[in-house]
Known about the structure:
The complex is a heterodimer of chains A (138) and B (556).
Chain A: H1 2-15, H2 34-44, E1 46-47, H3 51-65, E2 89-90, H4 100-104, E3 110-111, E4 114-117, E5 126-127
Parallel strand pairs in A: 1-5
Antiparallel strand pairs in A: 3-4
Chain B: E1 15-16, E2 62-74, E3 111-112, H1 113-125, E4 129-130, E5 133-134, E6 137-140, E7 150-153, E8 160-171, E9 177-192, E10 196-200, E11 205-209, E12 216-226, H2 229-246, E13 258-267, E14 277-282, H3 285-304, E15 313-317, E16 322-325, E17 338-339, E18 346-347, H4 366-371, H5 377-388, H6 392-400, H7 404-414, H8 419-436, H9 448-460, H10 464-476, H11 482-489, H12 497-510, H13 512-520, H14 525-536, H15 543-553
Parallel strand pairs in B: 14-15
Antiparallel strand pairs in B: 1-2, 2-12, 2-13, 4-8, 5-18, 6-7, 6-17, 8-9, 9-12, 10-11, 13-14, 15-16
Amino acid sequence: xxxxxxxxxxxASAGGRRGFPSKADPQGSRRVTAELIEHLERLALxxxxxxxxxxxxxxxxxxxxxLRAVDTDGVEPMESVLEDRCLYLRSDNVVEGNCAEELLQNxxxxxxxxxxxPPEKHMEITPFCLWTPPSKHH
Amino acid sequence: xxxPVLRWCCPGRRWVFxxxxxxxxxxxxxxxxxxxxxxxxxxxxxxxxxxxAQKPRKGEREWAAVVGLEIHAQIAxxxxxxxxxxxDFAAPPNSLVSFxxxxxxxxxxxxxxxxxxxxxxxxxxxxxxxxxxxxxxxxHYFYADLPAGYQITQQRxxxxxxxxxxxxxxxxxxxxxxxxxxxxxxxxxLEQDSGKSLHDSLRSQTLIDLNRAGVGLLEVVLEPDMxxxxxxxxxxxxxxxxxxxxxxxxxxxxxxxxxxxANISVHNPGEPLGVRTEVKNLNSARFLAKxxxxxxxxxxxxxxxxxxxxxxxxxxxxxxxxxxxxxDKEGKQDYRFxxxxxxxxxxxxxxxxxxxxxxxxxxxxIDQLREQLPELPRVTREKLVQQYGMLPEHSFxxxxxxxxxxxxxxVIKETRAEPKKVTSWVLNTFLGFLKxxxxxxxxxxxxxxxxxxxxLLDRKAISSSAAKQVFQELWRSKGKTPAQIxxxxxxxxxxxxxxxxxxxRSTLEAHPxxxxxxxxxxPRAINKLIGLVxxxxxxxxxxxxxxxxxxxxxxx
Lengths: 138, 556
């Protein structure tokens, strides 16, 4: 873990606040700073372990930024593809529950009938390597 | 805990920093105004609250406090907000948890109709505008008792907005007058409760019980219209009574059904609002006002000493009696709100817009709910004042205790006594005994009929002091009627006028000094004589009659 901290520190000192310029971003103002990486890592519990992951993040941002090319002036945003569906209302009856044993089987660590929470620093961190930017040729 | 030194009382409380040991500071120069960084919302000049007249001494500054509240009330429903598992306070750990509550993949939220009705009814009772269309969102944060990693709430467009909560506070030197106040209701939203974490310090681990995860909550946000702990506590109390009257929540703070967070800031009147802190964990009705007042005074002291208030989250430590910063809040939380993709907008209707040919189970008619609203506490109190001519504060007292109003009404039914007399019996004598022995009305050994009978005797056959004795006896021994007790203890009024005359005469003879005082014109001396005669008659004579006889004998 400490090697990663050192790496981030080096990046911060080397690049100052400039971060990494994003080649795919025509406006060139969106930088992915070290602070942003740390912030995202904390919020989303992902691990930007390498420069490659950060580059992938920047490509993702650039890809999404292409939406700005669409003129949406005066257009009401669609908040949900379900907006014309009816929201089903359930009657207030008890129909589920009573499956503690089943649920507890999912947990590594159990004390009596309680789940044991992992100590915070051991919370599961996902490596940020699951997304690849789409290629331009579809 | 050091009691903060305060100068004036609520409402319209003006807070003054009185320095250490109550000595005001002179010649110190006026400290710079409250910090303006991070002030809430727009910088607006606060409204001048009511002032009790007391001129500030030189060197003292005036402060006004601003308190806003966020209240979470557990909805009284059989099942949870988005799943069909049961809502119950005490059950074996993790036994009331469905697959959705445990956040297993592939599960989806299904909205509980009863929770929506509860939200609408509460909104109507608080004079809110009910949004015909409201939306659900996800609020993301990581905590072991939130298995999904997000809470479903209503951040963008809640179900009800722009209402008001009317409450009353006691004012005046003897706190005998009631003044009506209003706190704006910013919004009411539906959201999920989280599970419970129990910290096992022995094995230094945290145990998680998800029984509470997914229970429906009503979050009621009150505007920062309150100015001290007492007002906040009064507002909370009224909200509790409203929720209980509606049946939308049992609102019992001790059982965690009602939780309060306060947003507190101070400023100099006429200047912009100060930086606010959020105080969480105010879950006791008793300590609510104290905690808020403590935080207000802490902020005043800090600013007076030239310090700054941080926009932070604090917790109230009940043992220490003070607010402390909450540890693991590094920087501002970013909840990354996003629309809940699995739920379409919630649509509500009224009688006009109700779509035809739809399953009534699938539509909610606001007008129908409005018609079915039960009587609100405010209305009940007004009716009591109108019908029985009682003082507003008495109507408050009657509604403040579970079952007391019903008890009162039952006594009224069985007696022809004046309502004021009954009110006095119930609120003074009866309630006094209940409080002394820490009993609920339902546990009272004295029934309404017994009290009605006692009152009857009080008027005709026994004196008031004897009546009190009978009451005490009624309380202690079940099954006996007031008439029986009076007979047993020989408490009937003295019928023998001659015996009374004799007693009075002998009392006068035994206390010549007091007689002289009376003749001199001392108005209180006669009371002493009356007291002596009463004791001699063992409480069996009416004080008014005694007074008559004495005055006649003294030829006054």
